[in-house]
Design brief:
Length: about 260
Amino acid sequence: MRKSLLVLLLWAPLATALIAQPTERLGQAPQQAIEHFLLHNRILDSPQDLDNAPYIVAVQGGRVLGANGERIHARGSLDPAQPSYGIFRQGKAYIDPDTQELLGINANDIGTARFLLADNLTTLAVQRVTQEIRPGDRLLRAEPPVELANLQAGKSAPFIEGHIIDIPRGITQFGVLDAVTLNKGRRDGLVEGQLLTVIKTGATVRDALTGVPTRLPDERAGTLQVFRTYEKLSYALVLSASRALAIKDRFETPQQSQ
């Protein structure tokens, strides 16, 4: 009896750690992953949102290619109270795999620039570049930061299911702490903080005896947490994965999982 009690006492702290929430087990890594991701990625609801944004006319000295530390000149409405602007260029368009509806566009990160002064043209100083700046590149305000600790999963959220449609890093398979793009957003009821279950569709195999094609059961493969929602799209972070995840994998609200 005493031996059994001792084993129970030793096991209890370990069991508590094992059933802790994924974010607790991962420590500060999810917050850091989200901050890094949002620095380099942005979704806009339509191409017009980017077309209507302020744009770069030229780089210091009349050159057309900018580099870190150089000044750039822009046209459009820029707020002096906004210290830093992101530099973006239109990237891929997101099309819903089921309805073929245009859900939004990805704005490719080019760098950031700091507001200096406004005249006929606005002058900014380049702070960071990922590639050469071109005339016509757009300037967007920084989005508010995400505090993972403040995100609250929607306990009464409706049943929502959809698909992972992109991972902006351009790979086909991914895992824990990767950020993914979902084909559902605010209009569908997704909220920031919502936990989602990733479902792998069961493979179709041929029955060795009858020769009949047979679909294997779907399997739970991981957990996502939504950290930024747009009208028709969302970003989510992979908190756990029991196997490699892939674009086109299905997700759903966990309370309805089978």
